[in-house]
């Protein structure tokens, strides 16, 4: 499953730039521990595989999680004077500032993702969210992603809960088709953070701008009501 994720992100420019500029390209190895945790976490964390019924080949997988409205998450390590949560830089681990420009990019993307996550899912919020999703490159655009997404949106609809996801550029369209809409976004100019331009093997002139889209989906009953209101 981790290897499939590495293959799925092999053409993602943000991932390509980080790998080419000092972050070792071992996404598969770094995914192994989180995946094991997600699989063991239950019952609110669900890891689902899409498998070819004829060959048993793994085609894709998703990790969906339902937030627990009855269980308050642990307090953030650092809080402001007014008790408001602070954005905790993922890489700085407290006092060490990030060093390289790729580290700065990770610091920015992690901090901004955490900021939005705290806004959309304050303690006590009941919702469903996609932790990770990937479909094998040769199996993409055949509806497998849509099926993995609808597993969670169906449950969220039944419970009247909203869903959210941090969308990659490739994921945005798939999530829009499932009813997610943009709630916020972060656009970064990858060339600003890159120590070197793309190699000729990438076919890219520049790394370019990359947009992470933070997306939200209301439960179907709410969508239905909104459409009725729009049509008068
Ligand atoms: C995003 C992803 C999971 C979608 O899976 P999928 O099986 O290809 O999705 P579907 O076949 O259900 O397609 C849904 C829509 O997504 C879009 N889409 C699929 N693959 C895409 C790609 N590589 N780039 C851009 N859009 C893509 C298509 O518009 C498609 O709509 P269509 O049916 O009108 O063509 C898959 O492309 C993937 O693994 N991408 C790399 C990893 C990634 O970015 N994951 C998302 C992290 S948030």
Automatic annotation (TrEMBL):
CDD domains noted in UniProt: NAT_SF
InterPro entries, sorted: Acyl_CoA_acyltransferase, GNAT_dom, Trichothecene_AcTrans
Pfam families: Acetyltransf_1
N-acetyltransferase domain ranges (all copies): 120-200
Chain residue ranges for the region called Disordered: 70-100
Protein name: N-acetyltransferase domain-containing protein
